[in-house]
Amino acid sequence: MAGVGKTALMQHVCGMEAVKSSFELTHWIWVSQEFDVVSVTRKIVEAVTRSRPECGELSTLHELIVEHLAGKRCLIVLDDVWDDNPSHWNSLTAPLSRCAPGSAVAVTMRSNKVTRMVNTKVYHLKCLSDEDCWRVCQRRALPNSDANVDQELVEIGEKIAKKCQGLPLAAEAAGSALGASTSWKHWDEVLNNDLWADNEVKNLVLQVLKVSYDHLSMPLKRSFAFCSLFPKGFVFDKDLLSHYGIYSFSYL
């Protein structure tokens, strides 16, 4: 489900020294629900060449991938795959077969149909326990605290962690909201926020993120609003974003 930590876990694995030392190259490609073989292949080319390809022919894109990856031991991460069409998958991964033995393609997904299509070893992530959710919340809310946290805050925090229903992303967002203040009143307001009322797990992440958003400072809310104008997966140029972000604030 959303927020269980698939992408975060994969990022952690890719950063492990034992993994990095096992591959000559590691490339991360975000796929998304709107799957198109050519566009995703272009993303792979962009990742391996560090430049945007000018061509749009699938065969030419495949040649570029083979040119840069052939004979090298590679780890290719395809993040957030939804498409379960085997022919699309075969076309996408065909040039990757030219990598050296020991190469791997890792996929994050939410669909069981995709796991059957990929036909490989699958790891199903489980939700966290309430105790672990509280640890995540506490780490985010009280990053510099020692073990002697006010017991009243602990009791409220544990109740909030239980509402996160085992989702790390929800716990991170709740912890961020709590971190705005260490007063009992503030934590109680987060606990009793109306957005917790809908207990559907599928809606929980957005609800908790809204709680976190409500406790942002006004400048950060404006930045968030500006960035929301761009589509999911948009690649930002930090200097351009800063320039237009400051320019747009004068009209808010």
What does this structure look like?
With about 250 residues, the chain is mostly helical. The protein folds into 2 domains: about 5-110, P-loop containing nucleotide triphosphate hydrolases (Rossmann fold, 3-Layer(aba) Sandwich), CATH 3.40.50; about 130-215, no CATH class. The protein contains 13 helices and 3 strands; from the N terminus they run ααβααβαβαααααααα. Strands 1-2-3 form a 3-stranded parallel beta sheet, sandwiched between helices. α3 (about 35-50) runs parallel beside α4. The longest helix has 14 residues, at about 200-215. The radius of gyration is 22 Å and the shape is elongated. It starts with 5 loop residues before the first helix and ends with a helix. Residues about 245-250 have low confidence and may be disordered. It holds the Pfam family NB-ARC. InterPro entries: Apaf_helical (IPR042197), NB-ARC (IPR002182), P-loop_NTPase (IPR027417). This is NB-ARC domain-containing protein. One of its GO terms (molecular function) is ADP binding.
